[in-house]
Amino acid sequence: MLLNVQDVEIAYNRIKVLWGVTLCVGEGEIVSLLGANGAGKSTLLKGIMGIAPLHRGSISFLEKDVSKKRPWEKAKMGVAYIPEGGRVFPDLTVEENLMLIASLHKEAFDVKENLDLVYSLFPVLKERLQQKAGTLSGGERQMLAIGRALMSKPKLLLIDEVSMGLMPKLVSEVFNTLSLLKEYGISILLTEQNVPEALAISDRGYVLENGRITISGNSEELLGNEMVKTSFLGL
Amino acid sequence: MTFGYILSIATFASIYAILILGLNILTGYTKQVSLGHAAFFAIGAYTQALLITKAGLTFWSALPLTILLSMIIGVVMGLPSLRVSDDFLVLTTIGLNFIVMGITEYFDFFGGAMGIIGITMPTIGGKSIGTTGYFLITLSFLLLTICICYLFSKTWGRLAMEATGEDEDAAQSLGINTSIYKMYAFALSSTFTGLAGVLWAHSIGSVFPRNFSFEMSVLFLSMLVFGGLGTIRGAVFGAFVLYILPEFFRFIENYRMLVYGGMLAMIVILQPNGILGRGGLLDRCILRLVKKKAETQEIS
């Protein structure tokens, strides 16, 4: 298993948000994390990245225990995280946003190879290299956020609400791109409100309710599940 | 207005410019707002004063020691910034300012309220260099500081600091050890601020606790915000303008805090990037002039 989350609990100021969550992501898998607002999806991703500290439980990545590792240590091990809204650095140019990590850890990454991959996935970024990231449109920003994460050639990509604030046409485009990443050996764990789009590209999914995982299964099973149908698909 | 007077104003303006360049690294790049930079200034000035008067060192032999100590204390005082952020860091730096002022005021070792006097001018080859010579030394240190800051601004280290300042979580999850970069920023910042303290102590010849009050910290932040956060030109411009203007308009002396405070508020609202910062009032004027010149040259 690439990522193993075991019995994780996370609390903000004594208020428990996650109650013993267990899940896993295999090599080359795309896994969706579904659930309503406030279910704890974003918190779980933050916990895996190490931004939100764990109260209990353990996380292992590539068979190594990483429960206590800081975010930047995990980033160097091959975990990349795209927060909600992309959060690109607005005052830096597109090029600086992309090159920042590669330049700080030259020995670790093949800069040119990664850059070629980013340009082939998002040609529009190549035209905007010298532009400040803050002046990009919402869709371009999201592309830059994904591109920036890919620059470290991650093995696992954690994506929080990638479709947030994008127009429907762009949402399909972004999901198409994500499904392409599989071919480059990148596994993905994503949270999403747009359930049909997410399950269309995922192998498996988990449903998170009030901080607990209530349903799990492969994408077809979830699409056929009565509870998923009524709560998320509006059927 | 005598030549000596102008020389002294130019010397002090250069010293403040070095200090604001130091503050710029911390507050301009990593967005760690410091309202206690007078504390770092005091550490440079007091260390130098003690090394000169008590240990009997000269300007040149004390300088490296003071710079080193300023850097170390800067890192130690920066440690709280790893635990607290934003508004709480501002409060912490204000606290540091009062602690340093308190220590210098209440311990006889630091001269107490009477301060330390008799900090002699540096000598070269056994001869005193006079005010002109001292101005030239200060100016060379300013140019050196500008060079270092310019070279640093071209490195990826500066980008990592800016990324840390803009979005710490995002920077961390990209693999930037934000704690380290904050410490770098504190170290660099306190080094330049300590250097400014050294130059200031020799220039005045004495140091008193009240020279390093919270008011001064407000002045420093005003200078940087006025000129333009995150830019070298803004830092130097802000220091020169806000130091020199009150010298010529002595009548506002008593209302200085009112003027600085009011101006700080106005700038933040009307020119958030500073007068000479990116997209600031003067910045745009200069760009327009340069453009016009280029156009007329093209026509002719």
Keywords:
heterodimer, A: 235 residues, alpha/beta, 10 helices, B: 300 residues, mainly alpha, ABC transporter involved in vitamin B12 uptake, BtuC, two-stranded antiparallel ribbon, globular
Topology:
The complex is a heterodimer of chains A (about 240) and B (about 300).
Chain A: E1 3-12, E2 15-25, E3 30-34, H1 41-49, E4 56-61, E5 64-65, H2 71-77, E6 79-82, H3 94-104, H4 111-121, H5 123-127, H6 138-150, E7 156-160, H7 168-181, E8 187-192, H8 195-201, E9 204-209, E10 212-218, H9 219-224, H10 226-233
Chain B: H1 3-29, H2 37-53, H3 59-78, H4 87-106, E1 116-117, E2 123-124, E3 127-128, H5 130-153, H6 156-166, H7 168-173, H8 178-204, E4 206-207, H9 214-227, H10 232-248, H11 256-270, H12 281-299
Describe the structure.
The complex is a heterodimer of chains A (235) and B (300). A 6-stranded mixed β-sheet of chain A has the order 6-7-8-3-9-10, sandwiched between helices. In chain A, strands 2-1-4-5 form a 4-stranded antiparallel β-sheet, covered by helices on one side. Chain A has 235 residues and is of the alpha/beta class. In chain A, a hairpin with a 2-residue loop joins strand 9 and strand 10 (212-218). Chain A is globular. Chain A contains 10 helices and 10 strands. With 300 residues, chain B is mostly helical. Chain B has helices at residues 3-29, 37-53, 59-78, 87-106, 130-153, 156-166, 168-173, 178-204, 214-227, 232-248, 256-270, 281-299, and strands at 116-117, 123-124, 127-128, 206-207. In chain B, the strands form 2 sheets. Chain B has a two-stranded antiparallel ribbon. A two-stranded antiparallel sheet of chain B has the order 2-3. In chain B, strand 2 (123-124) and strand 3 form a beta hairpin. Chain B is globular, with a radius of gyration of 20 Å. The interface between A and B is medium-sized, with 29 and 18 residues.
